[in-house]
Prior knowledge:
The structure is a homodimer.
Chain A: E1 2-4, E2 14-15, E3 17-22, E4 28-33, E5 36-40, E6 43-47, H1 53-61, E7 63-68, H2 74-82, H3 91-94, E8 99-101, E9 108-110, E10 115-125, E11 130-141, E12 145-146, E13 149-150, H4 152-155, E14 158-161, E15 166-176
Antiparallel strand pairs in A: 2-14, 3-4, 3-7, 5-6, 6-11, 7-10, 8-9, 10-11, 12-13, 14-15
Amino acid sequence: xxxxxxxxxxxxxxxxxxxxxxxxxxxxxxxxxxxxxxxxxxxxxxxxxxxxxxxxxxxxxxxxxxxxxxxxxxxxxxxxxxxxxxxxxxxxxxxxxxxxxxxxxxxxxxxxxxxxxxxxxxxxxxxxxxxxxxxxxxxxxxxxxxxxxxxxxxxxxxxxxxxxxxxxxxxxxxxxxxxxxxxxxx
Amino acid sequence: xxxxxxxxxxxxxxxxxxxxxxxxxxxxxxxxxxxxxxxxxxxxxxxxxxxxxxxxxxxxxxxxxxxxxxxxxxxxxxxxxxxxxxxxxxxxxxxxxxxxxxxxxxxxxxxxxxxxxxxxxxxxxxxxxxxxxxxxxxxxxxxxxxxxxxxxxxxxxxxxxxxxxxxxxxxxxxxxxxxxxxxxxx
Lengths: 186, 186
């Protein structure tokens, strides 16, 4: 028997994306979003209300970074999702984050988060509030690599549970993808 | 030290979305996609090449369902992502899936997958190949509920690892979201 829940924004797993930008003074900011995904081979889509300081910043700077939230920093990652930089201008610092400017785009890399997508703004649609970024580079700390490749067992990315308002880490491998070598999505 | 990987469609976690549709004869089809996310309180976005039989079907029927892939059916879920219904018309059956028509939309629910978003087509953009669906209902088997709510520990949704082409189950809870009760995304 199935239970019906009506129209709900329920999906599993949802990512926990930490989006980092510089404001007009070069002060780093960060927020947390679950509504986003890869939307092409070199693009990421984020659904962000225009009220966010992040949106103001990325429209001005034409760049942002996205780091998958990891289990080691879950308290800080939740904090930047709950508190607005419009009210707490130094939220980035209060979260315990430190920034290094990306080599590739005009946006901060959060030193504490080991994997980052460095993006330039491609478009922002005011009606849908969808941000599209072109992924210029992906960087990752050597501490999360195995044989020179990103290893999710070391990265420990977390997922958002939209029903119970919780974060879960990623678990063990349960299978291989593309058993005959074709691509999944195309 | 960070290693740079260049422009890559790397993100963690990525969902494994099993999209089900009826064709013009009422035959159910299913495919597997990692590029999709919630894009509003009642909407889901999927990035799907127009060549897919699924896209032909959902444009004709104006409806589709999305079930998060679960650990129990990983072989079938990978199979429907690798094999095209344009070449193997009975792939749905070959995957071992059985369909029940949704009560709410003109699309099949896959009996074997315990949670499903039932959607009507809102738009398909030929240029970006983005499908937007309005979520009319979310349904879930009682077997994956705890206290009447969807429980990810029972659902066992899987995530796609785009670097190592693997599927991982969701692991343990590592924290609560929205500690002060504000919403994460808005």
